[in-house]
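[SOLVED] Need 3D model of a two-part complex

Original post:
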Amino acid sequence: MALSGASQQSPDSTAAAPSAPAAQTPGALSPGNANYRITARLDPDARTITGDETLTWRNTATRPAATLQFHLYYNAWRDGQSTWMRERARAGRASAVRQRPEDSASIDIRSLRVIRNGVAADLTARTTFIAPDDGNVHDRTVIEVPLDSPVAPGDSLDVQVGWQSRIPRTVARTGAVGDFFFIAQWFPKIGVFEDAGWNCHQFHASTEFFADFGTYDVELTVPTGWTVGATGRERARTDRGDGTTTHRYVQAAVHDFAWTTSPDYIERRDRFEHATLPPVDMRLLLQPEHAGQADRHFAATRAALKYYGEWYGAYPYGHITIVDPAWQSGAGGMEYPTLFTAGTEVLSPARTGDPEEVTVHEAGHQFWYGIVATNEFEHAWMDEGLTTFSTARVMDEAYEPNFYSERYFGGFVPWVFRDLPLDREADGNRMAGYRRAAKGDAPSTPSFRYWPGSGGAITYNKTSLWLHTLERMLGWETLQRAMSTYFTRHALTHPRPRDFFDTVNEISGRDLTWFFEQVHGGSHVFDYSLDLLRSEQGTSGYHTAVVARRLGEGVFPIDVQIVFEDGSAQRWNWDGRERWKLFETDRPVRALHAQVDPERILLLDVNTTNNSASLKPRAKAAARTWSLAWLLWLQDHLLTYGFFV
Amino acid sequence: MRATSSFLTGLARVHRAPAVLAGTCALTVLIALPLSIALSGMLEAHLGNSLAAESVAAGANHQWWQEFSAQASGLGATFRPSIVGFAAVLRNWGDLLDNAPLASTIAGATVAWLVLWSFVSGGVIDRLARDRRTRSHGFFAACGVHVWRLLRLGVVALAIYAFLFGWVHGWIFDEGVGRLVRDVTVERTALLFRIAGYAVFGAMLIFFNLIFDYARIRIVVEDRRSALGAIGAAARFVRRNPGRVLTLYAINGLACLALVAAYALLNPGAPGHGLRLWGALLLGQLYIVARHYLKLAFYASETVLFQSALAHAGYTAAPPLVWPESPAAEAITNADPVATS
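Solution:
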């Protein structure tokens, strides 16, 4: 049921039996200004969706809206000229843009009527495609509709849209493969009207979405017997007698609606219960070949709900749907309100983090994206970065160390390296990816303008690294309070970077602007090193000297420590500003080794090997050991090629 | 002679030729060691006097590994976690069967090893066919006699294998399997298709491998000068003895698989330090020696089968003849000394 835009909603404000009482809902209530009632019929053979929607929209800005703007995401794959396709090609993902004609997608508006004060006006002919980001005249992912008269602040209108979509072969986590359908970004979705005007970006290859909160009341007609999963709870199911069944899903206080259907799903249910958090019904739609991994999916979801709930705030919706996507659907690892896709393989050994990590990550997005709904087009780090940081933390808390693994023979055969445990600092925060793209973009650049090939390293990895650095600077207790406060204040709203920074400054009682300006405002690389460690005997003991250097542009106050042969240590705190600094001391004993940032506070340091120096270096022994191991690999390689002679 | 007897006899012949085993192992080390030393220099330079060397020397340090990889190029880029323990085997076989591009920094060593192996294979087969000591001058004389013939055979083999990996692999896995699994949503089904792809591609590889194996043997044993003639003769031999040839090939293949499985079970993992370091390296080298042993057993058993099938009874040569009599002439002499008088 589409609600009048004038009301505010809690996540359970529809007829749905709420599991989480409104009192437990964090933060402000949703303005609920974009409410949809949608009916859609899937033709799986033709791969089309025929839909009608009634949008009730309220202008929450302080200025009148003279036009409406809608996203038509499926047109990103209409041909090779869309901005999405051009950006993907620019990023070197040629395979993604070489699509067959039958794999293309489209969304066409059949009709668009605006109803105000009971008077309907057909504005179909007025719709025009616009390209506010890059002026690409071939891009059809945003339409604009001029209104007869502006919508004043606080006023509402109804928009009835009829449309037909052609479903792509799965791309960007939406579409179909075989009988598997995962349908996201599929309906004409209104942009976000702000004081500065419409925030309705074209679909870009490296960024996600942004929409207003509202209630979604959606009727989906699919072949009878097919399992359906969707945002919200199922309220009704009607067999239409023509081989199809209509499933009605309703959810309040969300900003998107995604769904899936397939005849192959098996369904499992479980419940998250916690002493201080509201219970959550968990529904898992699983591929039959992954039936044995149901418990792993539930355990990971439970871990996310528990730790996110304890750290930041309660999950308010009372239910969550976990979708295990079909093989090669490409739909895995994506978040939507009250529903997310995980992803696993048939051969998925324990303690490799698969499917646990992706499950924790996407479940965690219910908080950083679902509830705190930041603008993914412009500030992707605010949901992806916070979630990556939190995922690493949950994995560290909930699971024993995972191990590095690789897959061979077309990716089907896994091998777990039990000698290579993964750690939170580098692996959880994804340092390797950040290191490769550290200078790619400044996070303050609108995300849709990132270089598409390296944007992920900035949004996910860099944010996780600087948040973890912040955790080590401030202590987890302080950072947790800051993040919890930020969560509570901005639940069901659209906060901006300033909101996060201000909250951290306020809660920590420190002005961290210098830090945020570097990690968010710039693309500086942090790299401190240690040089010239000497400990020479003099007349009254040993004179020890060490030079610390700042090799990168980033500046960070840092400790320098020398450890002596008797186990004693001397430490200096360096503001880290100069390019180098000499530290000297006289002791009765010789130095053993020295380190810059011995506690490893600065996790953004891209090279930690140069952070220390020893007077008894073991590089030769280490190199000999590992070159002999490598020798073994090369010998085996030669013998493998020996097959040919 | 039956395939099993040929296999066992082949093993016995390899067993009686320890110098050949040692020599081929040395050849592999000779090719690989300089690169290993070069890599050692890179690792040492990167570690410098860092404390990270402590943990790297004591076992694996994944963070350091990632830092090294981030700046590594050339040979250093091949230093990946998949060199550790049994993963090395999976990586090598996986790369080969999935037609992964060969890193240019080790391509030279690989080609050098193949050429040198082609050179020594004449002497190796000669030694195993005679099943008696040929001494180094006899061994290398046989190498010299056959090297150009074997290299010509190698050129033909290169052309065939290049065609298989350059075109047929793509047809099977990209066009064939790729098309078949395009709309498959069940991983197990896709895996079966891929296994079928490996089976088809593997069957082609084995077919040509068999031909080239017996061509190599006929060049040496029969002192054939024409590589193309040897290929034809080998094809005829395989066509006339398909059961025994394929069974023997399967036995040899299974022996290799058994060795690989044993290594997988014992998987030494990262080198560690102290006894664990030397234990892991020793186990790895034992595996490499065993691979050489089975490689020679492949040659020996196929040679035995060929000799037995083409009525070279009493091929075992005694008393030794003065080189350069071919193995075939030597066998004829052994069978009927009057023939050479």
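Edit: Chain B touches chain A through 95 residues (CB under 8 Å).
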